[in-house]
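Cont'd.
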Amino acid sequence: MPRKPRIVKRSGDQTAQEEPAPGSAKRHQIMQGALAVFLEYGYKGTSMDRVAEEAGVSKQTIYSHFEDKEHLFHELVEYLSGSLFPEQQDHTKLFELEPEAFLIRVSQLFFEQMDRWEYKSFFRVVVAESGRFPELAQLYVKRAVEPGLAVLVAYFEKHPELRLQDPEVIARIFRGSLASFALVQDILQGKRLVPMSRERYISGLVETVLISYQRKPD
Amino acid sequence: MPRKPRIVKRSGDQTAQEEPAPGSAKRHQIMQGALAVFLEYGYKGTSMDRVAEEAGVSKQTIYSHFEDKEHLFHELVEYLSGSLFPEQQDHTKLFELEPEAFLIRVSQLFFEQMDRWEYKSFFRVVVAESGRFPELAQLYVKRAVEPGLAVLVAYFEKHPELRLQDPEVIARIFRGSLASFALVQDILQGKRLVPMSRERYISGLVETVLISYQRKPD
DNA sequence: GTCTATACCGAGATAGAC
DNA sequence: GTCTATCTCGGTATAGAC
């Protein structure tokens, strides 16, 4: 668990000399602390005291920047949605790959993303609160799921030689297979119970999707 | 927020003299209340007061049957794992279906299960607490995921004519695709953002898996 | 705007009567 | 074993000094 930008509280007089740009700096500082605590303990498990401690500010400072805990959580989720899934960089290099290499690369990128603890924790929180905060779940779908599907669909549609009947469905199958694998193996700790290497899974998945393409016409 | 009227229904025999046994009526009554509250509000969001109210017993009665909140939660998850995913009934009828019908039926059964609110809520809680209660997540994998995979693998291995290179991987792809679809569409409320019918998805998924089988040799 | 201190409530858990 | 009443702690949010 990497983290802990703790600020040691100073006793006695404090000549606030090192304060750079009071307003948004403090706000960002609070967000960082909130990020660490919310992602680790979930919404209900997070206390404002803990956030204040983690951010190195007083509780009242938090309440001077955010209306209440729920608003803080909302802003954090929006911030994370933009931070964890940045706007699509150009996929020109990716699109130049041939089908098999493309799908393998996409899979690797997916798992690289999934291996970040922020991502796993964020996913847990989003799923956990998807009943009470549906709009946050939808934001996740919009920022984390849709863009990945769009890339796959775009590639598939530019490669009719793959002979894919329904590119949108295939894209979901591909992305969904990767996501479920990561969910069961990593998030739900299924590695020990039903171990399987990512390489084997990716290989089988790519082969399944491309089977019409790879099959040599007799 | 209106709430359900609390009725304590006692069946005839209630000796109520011996120590609480695993099968006692009160114990079951508490579990039912705990089930409703934990599934709706999650672990941290559930208070023992609320459970007592929902179960129609006093709080102390809960503590006479369960050591503390965490133990109650543990027992509840074990109970739910056995209740929501009962021991495999014989799949003889299922196994008699031909490949396409078999996979379609399996998909339908999966979604029928997913449509129960207990299942969705249970999934949310399991994912939410998978970091703090890893053994519960593994129990879920063991009871909810593995059996489904086993059925698919068994079928695939009895049908070599399907020409599936790696039945275990294909089983995971199939089951994982279904799970991700339900996750995005239903749990994460993606229906409105990226709508797609289950029929279209199942159709494409079955077709993809069986493509080697269905392709007529030229 | 930021701090310390505090109000107020609900949480988990327990005591003691019956 | 079950209840009512209560303890103690930690939760969100606010007051008032600077």
